[in-house]
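Our working data are protein records whose layout never changes between entries. The record below serves as our worked example for the rest of this section:
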Amino acid sequence: MARVTIGTNTSDTETYMSREAIFIHSLWRSGSTWLFDRFRRAGDAYWCYQEPFHEALAQLNGDPDALLGFADETARSLRHPALTRPYFWEFHALRDALHGKFAPCMSYASFFDPSVCPGLQDYVQTLIDAAPKMPVLQCCRSFGRVAYLRQTHGGVHIHLWRDAASQWFSYQINDYFDIVSLLVLQARNPPEVLLRLRQEIGVSALESEDFAAGYEQMRRVSLGWEQRYLVFYALWLYSLMQNHPLCTIDINLDRLSEDREYAETAATVLQQAGIEGVDLSSARSPVIFLDKSEREKFRRIEQRVEQLFLDSGVSEDVLQQAAQQRERHRPRRRPTIAALRRNAQQAREMALRYADRLAETNRKF
């Protein structure tokens, strides 16, 4: 399967050979829900699964009706686009075919080693086979197993990503994203760099395989903002280095939001891959504007992560290629009054959340 990329020097003109499914791979807060909704709105061509490895899908085995109201309030708080149907509607519609197929190990334990979860292949293939239209799997928990999914299930693979610092600040809308990032670090048989990262931040091994128990354990981990960004950037850089060469199509949300020519090229590339009717014109990627001293602080953390990659055997050439790709797609927008107001509002929200967490901690003692 050849790659079709956007905004790079790749000139591969072959087309992919398999049309079994379309996979979207990203970290959280990359615009993935927006892109998922774009596919949903593309007439009747696609059957769109949102986050097929989400831990909430364990409800398929017991109370599938609970999935219909799962994310209504959460979506509003996360500023997700208004969806035309419930978040997990497609899963609920196929609840009989999917009963007993989802296992909790699919969410985090098998993140880097699919063999940890023997039912994974059957579950994904059932999603593909049961879909009455072209299946689209929008995944935020797949970026450690793209090679496996591509080899096992074929299809078109889209890598969706955005500016690292802006994305991490978007994580701070609540505690969930930093916590599940720690759960990713707890996955079985992770790459060497993440083992080193676990040692560096001193996170204890999970005491239970139960998601709720593991989530609570990671919620109690006391990490400052620098360590939280350290974890995020390690996963962000890992995903960029691993999945840019693996995916058929590479889309950067920041470029899509601010560069009309890039957006037109993206639409053309989708069409070349047999993906018709997906309107990308409404892309909006908020950018955090950092001053020089702030950028230097974030860069020092990033350099610590990059050294971990080097210590783990990643070549300087590979890191340099990732740095060049990042620079090519760095947001070029200048701060507007509206953008600065949004940044200030987000800072106030983070301060209020910190005060609430501090109060909660104090009540426990």
Observations:
- The chain is about 50% helix and 5% strand.
- The longest strand covers residues 134-139.
- The CA atoms of residues 60 and 99 lie 6 Å apart.
- The first helix runs from residue 32 to 40.
